[in-house]
Amino acid sequence: MTTPQAPIRPDAAPKVGLVSLGCPKALVDSERIVTRLRAEGYQISPDYKGADLVLVNTCGFLDSARDESLEAIGEAIEANGKVIVTGCLGAEPEVIQAAHPKVLAVTGPHQYEQVMDAVHTYLTPPHDPHMDLVPESGLRLTPRHYAYLKISEGCNNRCSFCIIPKLRGDLASRPIHHVLTEAEQLVRAGVKELLVISQDTSAYGLDVKYAPQMWKGEEYQTRFIDLARGLGSLGVWTRLHYVYPYPHVDKVIPLMAEGLITPYLDIPFQHASAPVLKAMKRPGGQDKVLSRIANWRRDVPDLAIRSTFIVGFPGETEEDFDILLEFIKEAKIDRAGCFKYENVIHADSRDLPGHLPEEVKEERWHRFMAAQVEVSAARAKAQIGTVQDVIIDATGETAGSYLARSKADAPEVDGMVHLTSNLHLESGDIVAAKITDADEYDLFGDAV
Ligand code: SF4
Predict the structure, then answer these.
(1) In CATH, what is the architecture of 387-447?
(2) Domain spanning 146-382, CATH class
(3) In degrees, to the nearest 5, what angle opens at C-alpha 381 toward C-alphas 379 and 382?
(4) pLDDT digit string, tens, across residues 22-43
(5) Cα–ligand 1 centroid distance for 373 (angstroms)
(6) CATH number assigned to the domain covering 15-133
(7) Distance, CA 447 to ligand 1 centroid (Å)?
(8) pLDDT digits (tens, 9 = 90+) for 81-126
(9) If exposure means fewest CB atoms within 10 Å of the residue's CB, which of 6, 73, 354, 395 is most exposed?
(10) Could you tell me the pTM of the whole model?
(11) Which value, to the nearest 10 degrees, does the dihedral of the CA atoms of residues 289, 293, 299, 304 take?
């Protein structure tokens, strides 16, 4: 780390350029930092141009993400010269400083105070900060109509391939009344879709022993199901991400059946074969998962399940892999991301026996994707002729065309609905659409 120099004192409000890398959780960190910066009167710039210093929020989850982060830091130094680094890779300052000794300061994930201290050191805040520059719902980096709602930091699990607990620490849940109040403010600010994120959403509140809190005159425990109940009362789409299949997850299904929670579950199963799951040290248990999914679908027929999987984990046999393929077909996993196992630095799985050659991982990845595309295409085809609500994300390239999403599609990661309408629609409008066609992932339809 270099020694602090005299802070820059520009005449106009000092401008901080922000480069935000990584997952939605990192994006929420960036939003909090931006909110704090704006509250203190700093200007924010989405690139290096005209910025007095650049803040790079890094990701350190996979080796490829680490490389991308280091590259982004290098670019920022070259383009601007004054760079502060935060985020997951910030938990390893020695790596950053070895690659980029000119970096001014390094802070770890969700260290908002330290980030602000570093910014103050190198860029004097303007006098008389105007708190009213910041809307009640904070500043967001997502479009106006949807927002990520982070309910906790860290994770109590110790999955062998994952270094998140080393980077972000143990589970630390936000009090439920704070989360619900933030959600309400977001809805008041125009948000139509809340995306609940954490490392392990179903474990919410475990660390605070499910402490009860009051919100709008009613008692809510800091736990998954009360959170779903509270969010469900806000009247917007609420999508639950990173839900592990603990038995209590079954309790959210009736809320979906009632239309209070969006019929969508993002469950990162990662695998289906018992020996691989054991080697991965996965939480949640796989017992009776197939029959539970069948029960969920019986009660909520339009439920969409999204998941992520790792293929080529150390020790994964052909038989294990076949079990995985069978699982995604039988469980009809509607949307799936698939990653080839990466031997991440500091992950416990590095020491496991049976590491597989890259060609085997590659070949299994292709077979997985081919099986998945069939499941996805079958689901998409089954939607033809249905009428369903879709949310408008953007206008399309031609007049009267729009890019929209159904309740089965989370932003950024899932499919789209290509919509035509004679009406003038805005981002965030929710309209009924008749589905007329489908390809493997996307739907096509007309507003009705
Ligand atoms: S649940 Fe496992 S994979 Fe997810 S953050 Fe925790 S340790 Fe990592």
Answers:
(1) Beta Barrel (2.40)
(2) alpha beta
(3) 65
(4) 777 778 888 888 887 877 778 8
(5) 26
(6) 3.40.50.12160
(7) 40
(8) 899 999 888 888 888 989 999 999 998 887 777 888 888 888 876 6
(9) 6
(10) 0.77
(11) 150
